[in-house]
Design a protein that fits this description.
The structure is a homotetramer of 291-residue chains. With 291 residues, chain A is of the alpha/beta class. The first copy, chain A, has 2 domains: 2-160, NAD(P)-binding Rossmann-like Domain (Rossmann fold, 3-Layer(aba) Sandwich), CATH 3.40.50; 167-287, N-(1-d-carboxylethyl)-l-norvaline Dehydrogenase, domain 2, CATH 1.10.1040. The first copy, chain A, contains 13 helices and 9 strands. The first copy, chain A, has helices at residues 10-21, 33-40, 50-53, 66-74, 96-108, 122-126, 138-151, 162-192, 197-208, 212-223, 233-249, 255-269, 282-287; strands at 2-6, 25-29, 45-46, 58-61, 87-90, 112-115, 118-119, 131-135, 154-159. Chain A has a 6-stranded parallel beta sheet with strand order 3-2-1-4-5-6, with helices on both faces. In chain A, α2 (33-40) links the parallel β2 and β3. In chain A, α8 (162-192) crosses α9 (197-208) and α8 (162-192) crosses α10. The longest helix of chain A is centred in the middle third of the chain and has 31 residues, at 162-192. The relative contact order of chain A is 0.10. The model of chain A has no long low-confidence stretch (mean pLDDT 97). The A-C interface holds A 237, 241, 247-248, 251-255, 258-259, 261-263, 265-266, 268-269 and C 237, 241, 247-248, 251-255, 258-259, 261-263, 265-266, 268-269.
């Protein structure tokens, strides 16, 4: 298939590679020219702007945040272009509100909008080990399924409203954050009884929760280092804000998320904003004076 | 080896079977004669009381709660017997305080005390699929390792103080409870956006947390039924009390556990005390008026 | 003094009356013409628009929310007028962020900006029983003190940065909300022991907290009715959002506010959004199945 | 009237003085002989033990905690005495469970049991400025009302079950603790915006909550010192335990109390257990790195 790709940063660039590997033709654009050059070196075509990347069978986007998405897709001429592909697949983590605004604007402009955020980090993307959550018009999803097959290992169909996929993505982040806080409390409780956090977490994780995400974060909670960050705490706070806002819109209290948010702020106040977000696990230790 | 076994209820009976299967000689006692008869039918010897079961190379116990343990081991003549084995292995979930009392009383009576609680339920015990956490004198643990090998698949050495094993067991329960609450909040958030809980949980669990304990509880959170209970909510509240007390002793705040405890009470107030403890996941739905 | 007054709703109209009573000359504007007519009938002059009200020695404003303030003062020609008074006194409850934006824009436009939110409701304003918190340039506050003396019973000087007054106003609301939640938990705990909420709250309030705000809200918590609302729950949620955002900006966790916000959402989910905000006290009763 | 008085510590001694001042005849006992000597010097008679103090028209007690009460009234011969007064008035802060045990044992022994805890500290007792909450048989309360009139300024009738008075007392403590936490969050939020805690708290307290208890604790929150303690943090934690247990018995979640308890532990971990309990207000500052 012929696709445009907008946003070829750490994740986007790997996805473009997967599409090229599967034989698709890709035309890429990014606000950073060097990022475009990098994918062009691997076989993509260069687009001079977002509208030039909006061509062929579909345009895929992977921008870092709501502001960037609103800037490129809503405040520009992107949707007013005369010639554009029938569908835009947004694979980034967006807020529910932004997803709804985008869906509405695309429909008005006569374009399908599919939200398809992913679980997984760049190294997993490189192994085509991503889980994709797709929501929106099901016939359209069917049409672009080959693109998802090229990028991820599994595509989940969430429902007919694009923002539903963003809700599930946010909820997944909530569950990961809750896992970290639970490990932090476990580590602190054990430490209070002279049990090394690496020991208490290894026993519990290997006994009950023996999956990569637990093993990776148990290591971080027990030993750090929190630098360089895989995902920094300031961004995690932004995610927390999106989650709490998503809950607020539909009157769903999220008491765990409230506890986590307060601990993020505690860690930020202690200068850890640029570290890996798992650094907030130190709050439990610090409150118990066990550091 | 020659061992006594005190407490042959749902878990104890399966452990006795494992010991017998491995060629050990077992003499069993329980406050309920029928329970003893059941294991005698499979090859165990019958003890007329706890003291008769306290013989041979070691006595193992698996009693349901602190009260029973204090009744059988502290308020009786158990520790005053002239002839008794060199070690008592307590495999039940005890509070930290009870474990400390027991350890002290045993040492005074000239007997080693090993705490060795397990992760796993009767059906896992039947498949020798238990994780055993052993704490206490390491030379003693070495001596009784063949018994652990007969019963479980893996023995973790936690540390030199018996109650440390109980702390890790309690912390493991905290992590399971936190997993359930995180799934409950996820299910409610998704439901607020018309996503079926079975869908949102399946996507996240299969994508990120694909282990039996997540799959089992995701099913319960999404669909129930909560009856008959695997472990009822009233017992979960007792565990929560032990955990919070363990934290209090060493000045460790456990904010997640506090949220969970409040939700247990909410579920108890709504008549769910005799149901499976995962029923507390309905609190998130009820608070958001999504039931 | 000669003053303009923008926003003559329930609070603003009473403030205008106080200014007129003290002999000041007032020119008023409001987006609702009938509101202006009402104060004109009591001796104010009519302004045809916000800019006409921006005259004399000072312009005072009392608009309902950030959006209205941004609309009238930032997105309009208000600050570009050639002739305008030396100072704008904003007495409304604004977010910290909005207060900062307004302060910056006024300084650029060569106008002093004083934030002066109040504690008190319309009936207290009518008795000149308001507490005014003023922040900004202290010489300017000195100049307009006669206006504050006409409107309130006491003016507090908070500090040199206008938004500081808004922070104290938000914190005051936090303390009132916390008072209500504490009474709600008290009422529920007592009810669990067959003590009528009116009894338990009267005893504690009269013994320890015998001030009007406690007496008024104790009555509401114990007996309702929550209609018509003095201040509705939807607005309270908006305030909660401003408070949590104010905390987030300076990395201050506010765990009480988080609990309160979750209870607001619970009450909103149960259909109480248009009722008096004290209705969120029913959450404690409902969770304990004591309604 | 002729009364016995058991427990003449800091509070009890002042109450005895009030009874003597009102013309009642008092026979006193305490585990500390010097404490008895002090009240004998002011006109009381000396009892050699608790049973000698159990005479006349009523015996009043004011012991420091559940353990002391159980020791003196349940584990001793106190209730088995042949000659004893018709009623025992317990004015101490007891747990609900202890109050229920005492009530039951007294009734079995043919003695009325009235729970009558107070709000107020020794200096307030000295000015007869106590609020008394009385619960139990109403005819009996009527009979001993002259004793309450001698000791306090107001007697509240809570209900027919003695422990109901203890519930209201615990709930009052919850409301005071919540007041302190709300002031702590206010102080931290303000400090984040360079507002001195003394300023932010004074404005809010004088504007909205102008009663002694707020003024006193606002001063402590803003400035300390937390030594010597009026009531130390370790005792406050014990009270928190009683409150949470009282809630647990009737399935009432107390989320504010859970937050407060976690902050107590944080303060205890930081070495503040022997300081005035209001020291836990520093947790909000410490978490925001504002100390």
């Amino acid at each position: 298939m012929q696709v445009g790709f907008i946003g070829v940063g750490r994740m986007g660039r790997v996805m473009v590679q997967s599409l090229l590997n599967a034989g698709h033709q890709v035309r890429a654009w990014d606000v950073t020219p060097e990022a475009v050059d990098a994918v062009v070196a691997h076989g993509a075509e260069k687009a001079a702007n977002a509208n030039e990347a909006s061509w062929g069978d579909a345009v895929i986007s992977m921008l870092p945040n709501d502001e960037a998405m609103r800037g490129v897709f809503l405040s520009s001429k992107f949707l007013q272009a005369e010639s554009k592909p029938p569908v835009h697949i947004n694979m980034a983590t967006a807020s529910v509100q932004c997803a709804n605004e985008l869906a509405e604007a695309h429909i008005e402009a006569g374009m399908q909008y599919i939200a398809a955020p992913v679980f997984g980090r760049p190294e997993m993307a490189a192994e085509r080990n991503l889980n994709i959550m797709a929501a929106g018009d099901s016939a359209t999803i069917e049409l672009v399924q080959p693109l998802f097959d090229a990028i991820g290992k599994k595509t989940w169909r969430v429902g007919p409203t694009p923002s539903q996929a963003n809700v599930v993505k946010l909820a997944g982040n909530l569950m990961v954050a809750a896992m970290i806080e639970a490990m932090a409390e476990t580590a602190a409780l054990g430490k209070g009884y002279d049990i090394d956090p690496a020991t208490s977490l290894e026993i519990i994780v290997k006994s009950l929760f023996d999956v990569p995400i637990y093993r990776i974060y148990a290591g971080l909670v027990a030993n750090g280092p929190y630098e360089p960050p895989g995902f920094d705490l300031k961004l995690a706070l932004k995610d927390a804000r999106l989650m709490l806002a998503a809950g607020e819109t539909v009157n769903v209290p999220l008491p765990f998320m409230s506890v986590i948010r307060d601990n993020y702020l505690d860690a930020l106040a202690h200068g850890d904003g640029a570290k890996d977000w798992s650094v907030f696990s130190r709050v439990a230790m610090r409150r118990a004076e066990l550091e």
